[in-house]
Amino acid sequence: MPDTVSALGSPAGRREGPAKVTGTARYAAEHTPPGCAYAWPVPATVARGTVTGIADEEALALPGVVAVLTHQNAPRLTEPDDATLGVLQDARVPHRGWYVALVVADTLETAREAAAAVRIAYAEEPFEVTLRADDPAAYVPEDSDGTSGEHVRGDADAAFTSAAVHVDVQYRVPPLHNHPMEPHAATATWQDGRLTVHDSSQGSTTVRDTLADLFALPREQITVVSEHVGGGFGSKGTPRPHVVLAAMAAKVTGRPVKLVLPRGQLPAVVGHRAPTLHRVRLAAEADGTLTSVVHEVTAHTSRIKEFMETGAAATRVMYPSPHARTTHRVVPLDVPTPSWMRAPGEAPGMYALESAMDELAVALDIDPVELRLRNDTDTEPDSSLPFSSRHLAECLREGARRFGWSRRDPRPLSRAEGTVLIGTGMAAATYPTLVSPSRASAHAHPDGSFEIRVNATDIGTGARTVLAQVAADALGVPLDRVRTEIGDSDLPAAPLAGGSSGTASWGWAVHAASTRLAESLAERQGQPLPPEGLHAKADTKGTADADSDYARHAFGAHFAEVGVDSVSGEVRVRRLLGVYAAGRILNPRTARSQFIGAMTMGLGMALTEGSTMDAAFGDFTERDLAAYHVPAHADVPDIEAYWVDEDDPHLNPMGSKGIGEIGIVGTAAAIGNAVHHATGVRLRELPLTPDRILNGEA
Question: What pLDDT score was predicted for residue 478?
Answer without folding.
Answer: 94
